[in-house]
Fold:
Amino acid sequence: MEEVTSASTGHVATSDTDEQTGRVRSSRFPFPNPLAAAVTPFSRAGRFYVQSWRRYLSPRRDGGIPVVRPTVAFAGQAFLDEIVLAGFRMLRPTGVGDAVARTEQETIAALELYQQAGWCEQPERFFVPPPPLLDVTTRTVETRRRTYERLSFESEYEPQPGEPGRARWLSYAANKRARVWMLRHDEPRPWLVCVHGASMGRPDLDHTLFRTRWLHEDLGLNVVLPVLPLHGPRRRGVWKGAMFPGEDILDNVHGTAQAVWDIRRLVSWIRPQDCAVPIGITGISLGGYVASLVASLEDGLACAILGVPAVDLFDLIEQHAGLAPDDERRRVVTLAKRVGRVVSPLALTPRVPYEGRFIYAGLADRLVHPRHQILRLWEHWGRPEIAWYEGSHTGFSRSKPVGRFMREALVRSGLVDPERPALAGH
Structure:
């Protein structure tokens, strides 16, 4: 059994999680939020540890997922993810009443529009190619830890005419200007676009988790870190309930479409600077999801390195919502999963060459289920090279195997000279 806090009721929904599917079956018990917040990570990590032993001792094996001997340290990795999940549940608002009704109406209208336009059958047509990016503003930022450039430009993205939620999305004023953190050399060098995860988009955090000093100074890359919609400075002044990803279905669709639009515009700005150098893209978690879409729409990328990638955004929301069988939001989630096809990498064909496709994932990942999320993309992309590390969703930045895998992927994709040094300790 797993406990899931309901922010709308102040109670806990306890649920069984099937480790094979990542699905949640819920029922309600009246525990107050503070107690749930304290106890839930321990109980869930403990059950993960027990289930891991069952998998290890079972003659049946999950195809494609290595089976490792569980240790207390391995369970500790899962515990770190459970703390993050508990924080998300406590801090993120949960829609009820009128908000659910409005979201359901919008989702129904969107599904009708997308079907009529043929976007459900041909999702690539939903993503309108953006105009080239020509007008950018750059400013040098100096801190005690690093010096980098801050690039900004008008996104110019707008939801399609007639799309539900269009006016609301356009009302998020700060989101209209795209932001990018950038480290570049004076001479031509290969470029790596690094797409951050949910709740990131802040310079210090992004630079740290992507280890940009290593990428820029040791591996010799130009590094750009675009800020996703409704993240970092792009959510200033926006009401706290507006989130990407969040429970508002159409905001998730528009956020995904704008993220892809902004990154493709950024690539159009990079290319003319030196057409001879390769450009690669990497992303973590939500950023892996966005990067997989860009890699399926943008021609000419040398590689796509996806870290602990989310694949099916609306399925992931359902997995972690812990909804009771009679919860009115279940109808919305069912509709959302149909709408989600237009923004699913599983409905698109990757354009990055097969030899440039790479994935890394954590065996103790409690945020993005290895089988139900990552393996689906791995299969869809033709089973490219994948590296499994014995850690959590949030443990990739401390993983030595991930560092080695990243460097090898960049070398094999032609972005890094094989003589360049590895990350210290890797």
Summary: The chain is about 35% helix and 15% strand. Residues 20 and 371 are 7 Å apart (CA to CA).
